[in-house]
Amino acid sequence: MPSFQTAAKAALADTQQRRNLAHATATIRGKRAAVVAEVEAWEELRVAGAAAKDEVLHHLPHYLEQLEENLTARGATVHWARDAEEANRIVVGLVQERDADEVVKVKSMATQEIELNEALEAAGIHAWETDLAELIVQLGHDRPSHILVPAIHRNRAEIREIFLREMGEVGRPAPADLNDEPARLAEAARLHLREKFLRAKVAVSGANFAVADTGTLVVVESEGNGRMCLTLPETLISVVGVEKVLPTFADLGTMLQLLPRSSTGERMNPYTSMWTGVHAGDGPQDVHVVLVDNGRSHVLADPVGRDALRCIRCSACLNVCPVYERAGGHAYGSVYPGPIGAVLNPQLRGTGSDVDKSLPYASSLCGACFEACPVRIDIPALLVHLRTQVVDEASGRSVEALGMKAAAWTFADHRRLEAAQRAATVGGRLLGDRTIRTVPGLGAWAQARDVPTPPKETFRQWWRRTHGDGAGADGTGTDGTGTDGRTA
C-alpha cells in the first residue's frame, strides 16, 4: 500500500463512493445521536466501559488464564497463537482434520486481520462469508471499507449487479428479475446462503467479548446469520483477539448498552448469541477457541498506546470522522480503517511501511472521535504520540529532523545566525513581494500555508541604517553606552 495521503487522493476522485459514504455515515450518526440521548447516564456508562477494559489490560495474563480454565472446564479446546501465521495454521489444521472442504463464517475482524480466508483458500478450503455486507464484499472481489458495514462504499444498484454477476458462480444464482429494493436483495442473499448453512460441517467465528469468569463467548449481530453459524455446524472454531476479554459477566451488561447504541444506533442488537463450551445435544459438540496475540503484546507494552486495545469495534469514530467520510476505508490499507485504524495499525504492524508511517497523520485532530468513543479512547492524543514515534524512528533522516538539526547548529553560534540572516535577506530582495508557494521537502505543509517571505534586511542592518554606524545592533553604542547617553 502507498501512504494514506497518496491513496486518499485517488479515493477522493471517486465521486460515487463519496456520495455513498456521506449518505451512510450521516444516517448512522443521526440514529446514534437519538438513542444515546435517551440514556441520562451515558457518560457514566462510558467511564464504566473504559474501567472494565483497563482492568483487563492491566491484568491481562490473569484474565486470559481464567478464561482458558473456564473454557476448558466446559468442554472447549483452547489454542494460543503468537501471530497470524500460527493462527491460520491452527484453523486450517482443524478444518482438514475434519475432512471438510468448506466453512461458513460469522463476520470477524480478527479473521480478516490475519487473512484467514486467503489461508483457507490456499489449502483448498472454501470460506463463505454469511454476513450480508461481507458477502457483498466477497462476491465483488473487493475489500472491506468499514468496521461495521464493510460494503458501505457500495450502493443498491452496484450490489444488484454484483449479485446477478457472481452468485451463480459459487452457488445458487440470484433471481433473474432481481431489482435493487433492499428486501429483494436480502432475500437473494438468504436463498443463496441457506444451502451453505445446511451443508457446512465447520463454522468459523470471532467474538465481540469473552467473559473470563464464566468462559462465555459473545457475538452480537443484526441478521441472524451468526446464530445459524453458531448452532448448525458440528464444529465451531472461534478466533478471538486476546484483548476481547472482560473480567466478569456483570461487565457484559455495560458493554451491551454501549455497543449497539454506538454502532448501529439501536437500543439492543437483534441477535445476541452467547455460548459457554459444549452442551450435549445442543449446538456444536466440537468447540475450539484460538486466542490470538498478533502484535497486541507490543501494543500493551506502551503505557500510552495500549488505550487503543480498549476498542470494542463499534465504528462510532469512523462515522463522525470528516477524513474517513471523504477518503473512505480502503485508503487506510487495513481491515481497521478510520481513526481507530490510524492508531491501531501502526502499533500492531509497526511503522516500517509507507502506509503505517503515514496513518498517524490521517487526521485533523478535531477530537470528534474521542467524543463518540463509548470506551473513551483519546484517539487524538494517541495520534500525536504516534507522530512523535514516527519522527523519532526516522533517526534524523526525515526533512523535519534534518531541519531541526540545522536550526540547532545555526542557533548555537551568533556568527552563524548572523550569516544565515544576511543570506536570507538576499532571498528577500530577489523575491520582492512574491509569496512562496512551495518548499522542497515541505510540500504538504506549504500547500496549506503561505510561507513568510524573507525580509529584505535584518534587524541589525535596519538599526545601523536608521541609527548610524555608531549604534550597536543590540541598541548600545560602540563605547558601551546607550544611544541616549546612558550606561548600558
Automatic annotation (TrEMBL):
Species classification: Bacteria, Bacillati, Actinomycetota, Actinomycetes, Micrococcales
Protein's UniProt keywords contain Electron transport: yes
Name assigned to this protein: LutB/LldF family L-lactate oxidation iron-sulfur protein
Organism (species): Ornithinimicrobium kibberense
Gly residues bias locations: 469-488
Superkingdom of origin organism: Bacteria
Region (Disordered): 465-488
Keyword terms, alphabetized: 4Fe-4S, Electron transport, Iron, Iron-sulfur, Metal-binding, Repeat, Transport
Domain called 4Fe-4S ferredoxin-type: residue spans: 302-323
